[in-house]
Specification:
The complex is a heterodimer of chains A (200) and B (390). Chain A contains 8 helices and 7 strands. The mean pLDDT of chain A is 94. Helix content of chain A is 32%, strand content 24%. The longest helix of chain A is centred in the middle third of the chain and has 11 residues, at 97-107. Chain A has a single domain (3-118, 151-197), classed as Vaccinia Virus protein VP39 (Rossmann fold), CATH 3.40.50. Chain A has a 7-stranded mixed sheet, with helices on both faces. Chain B is of the alpha/beta class. In chain B, helix 2 links the parallel strand 13 and strand 14 (182-186).
């Protein structure tokens, strides 16, 4: 894979994570995010993935992965046993989001969440002018075959964090190829948040 | 468990192999068993495939299931019965004998060359029969450790096996964690469940109910064939899945119509009879009793796999099979949960297959992908390929 093929969200997350961190990737797919972290930054990585073909790919890359669904995978871990827990493009597929985020914050010092922004301007146009369920680069599915069960905007997520007393350490807003600096809730396709437990 | 007698492609095989024997625990040095009893001398039958490297870092110990033996790969001279894991052990296979040195030994209590109830008791000059002491999975592993010492291997690259072989894998980690770099337990459990114990008890009762068993003293007269055959038939039912039986036999009749008698009408009946009849020719009834008991006693739950506060650096690859109802996936997941709590580096995969428990012997392709790359990583660390140019 050439460097310009690296997904923007992956390169942002890659740059956030410090060398030799302990990382848990929830919904790690074929390990495309974890592999360079392990290779270049000697990260101690563990993936969780439901698809058995994807697991075979991870093992091919030398990654350690558990065959499990995200919601069932967290309970057994001791508190604070990871530096980062990643939920990239998988939170919107989880039913019990509140539980998963809180468990992730329990077992990880920081949690990285990446999700598609439902309030992206094109989604708004599709819904408002065409009266149809939005299909965008970050939400590419037809309504009847989407794996997503949660649809949220960047502002929704900020509200969620405020209400649940979750601290937002960093926020990155992503367009198709570059970072979005203005009106992210309108102009960003995806967002990547770094979270930590709020003050008690 | 699925006996294979097909001719093999010699290019992909380790070729002709010979069983070797190692004897220890002679007079005064008897092996103290978990039960407190002593056993000795002890002979272990074993085979090896591939070459041990100079640093002695490429040794893999393969551990067999209930009715297995030391003959895991290749063929014996003049015979064409290939080893029980020949699909997995050989040049270019999952356990690649071009790179690794693979060892397989028959368990103590067995009847394929290692000391067991059918062996001659040196004290009496007769087969032990029920004078043979009770053995456990830990005793089997303890004996294997003597063999590994004898072979001069300090740390095994990997211990692996399915079913009871998987229990020995876990026991290796529990007993000698510093001597195991990686562990691949397949289709196994941390402890035998009441359902599994129940099946084993029916198996034992069917052997002991045969008058030909003679309280274990049948060696002059011949095996309790009926009881042992029924025991094995029960086993074979549990090794398959509902779906694999449907695919293999459905309700097909052996001769096209009902006999209206108690002969085997259905193909599935014929298959079980055939398996039972074959088994009595190759396996000792008392060994079956002793080994099933050892399996039932197995329990590494609680803090017994990895004692509290202890850190281990053994890597794990755990494999289970969706259609395996004898050792269901939730038992493998119990191992995974324990490893998570102990923060042990591990991979777990449940493979989709219809073969049931037998899958660990026959589901070759996906197991091979997982095992080959897992061993690669364990042996070489990361092969730095500059294909992700961040």
């Amino acid at each position: 894979m050439a460097s310009n093929d690296i997904r923007l969200d992956h390169s942002i997350i890659y740059s956030i994570i410090e060398p030799e961190s302990r990382v848990l990737d929830l919904g790690c797919g074929e390990g495309d995010l974890l592999y360079p972290l392990v290779r270049d930054k000697q990260v101690r990585a563990q993936g969780i993935e439901l698809d058995d073909k994807a697991i075979q790919e991870c093992v091919r890359k030398g990654l350690s992965v558990f065959h499990d669904d995200i919601e069932h995978s967290l309970r057994e871990y001791p508190d604070n046993c990871f530096d980062y827990v990643i939920l990239n493009q998988s939170m919107q597929e989880v039913k019990n989001v509140d539980f998963v985020i809180h468990e992730a914050l329990r077992i990880g010092s920081k949690v990285i969440v990446g999700f598609p922004n439902f309030a992206f301007i094109r989604s708004r146009f599709m819904l408002f002018f065409r009266g149809k369920a939005p299909i965008t680069k970050s939400l590419p599915y037809l309504w009847f075959d989407t794996p997503n069960v949660r649809f949220l905007s960047i502002d929704d997520f900020r509200d969620f964090c405020a209400e649940k007393n979750i601290r937002i350490i960093e926020a990155h807003y992503l367009g198709e190829r570059r970072i979005v600096h203005f009106w992210p809730n309108l102009l960003a396709l995806n967002a990547v948040f770094v979270l930590a437990k709020g003050n008690a | 468990m699925t006996e294979t007698g097909n001719k093999i492609d010699i290019d992909k095989s380790v070729g002709v192999v010979e069983t070797q024997y190692y004897t220890y625990a002679g007079p005064g040095k008897e092996h103290k068993l978990e039960s407190g009893e002593k056993l000795g001398p002890i002979t272990l039958a074993y085979e090896t495939y591939g070459k041990l490297n100079k640093e002695k870092t490429n040794a893999i110990l393969a551990l067999h299931a209930l009715s297995g033996d030391a003959h895991a790969a290749g063929v014996h001279a003049g015979q064409d019965n290939k080893g029980w894991w020949d699909d997995m052990i050989g040049p270019g296979k999952a356990f690649d004998t071009d790179r690794y040195f693979v060892i397989c030994s028959n368990v103590i209590g067995g009847c394929k060359g290692s000391t067991g109830p059918s062996s001659i008791n040196e004290a009496t000059g007769k087969p032990y029969a029920l004078d043979f002491p009770f053995i456990t999975i830990a005793d089997m592993v303890h004996a294997q450790r003597h063999l590994i010492d004898f072979l001069g291997i300090d740390k095994l690259l990997c211990v692996t096996g399915g079913s009871m072989g998987g229990m020995q894998v876990l026991q290796w980690v529990a007993s000698y964690p510093e001597r195991v770099r990686s562990a691949i337990p397949i289709a196994t459990a941390l402890k035998h469940s009441p359902q599994q114990i129940a099946f084993n008890e029916v198996v034992r009762q069917s052997i002991m109910a045969d008058p030909a068993w003679r309280e274990g003293n049948y060696y002059e007269y011949g095996q309790p064939e009926k009881g042992l055959a029924v025991a094995r038939m029960i086993g074979h039912i549990t090794f398959m899945s509902d779906q694999s039986m449907e695919e293999k036999f459905s309700r097909r009749l052996k001769s096209g119509s009902f006999s209206f008698g108690f002969d085997a009408d259905f193909e599935v009946e014929g298959y079980l009879h055939y398996r039972g009849a074959n088994f009595v020719k190759r396996f000792d009834a008392n060994s079956y009793l002793y080994i099933t008991k050892a399996i039932d006693y197995f329990d590494l739950s609680g803090g017994r796999l990895i004692p509290g506060g202890k850190a281990i650096d053994t890597r794990f690859l755990i494999i289970s099979f969706k259609s395996d109802w004898l050792y269901p996936s939730h038992q493998s997941q119990e191992i995974v949960r324990l490893l998570k709590r102990k923060r042990v580096d591990a991979t777990y995969c449940e493979l989709r297959t219809t073969y049931g428990h037998d899958a660990f012997l026959v589901e070759v392709e996906e197991q091979t992908t997982l095992i080959k790359h897992f061993l690669d990583k364990t042996f070489n660390g990361y092969l730095v390929v500059n294909d992700h140019g961040i």
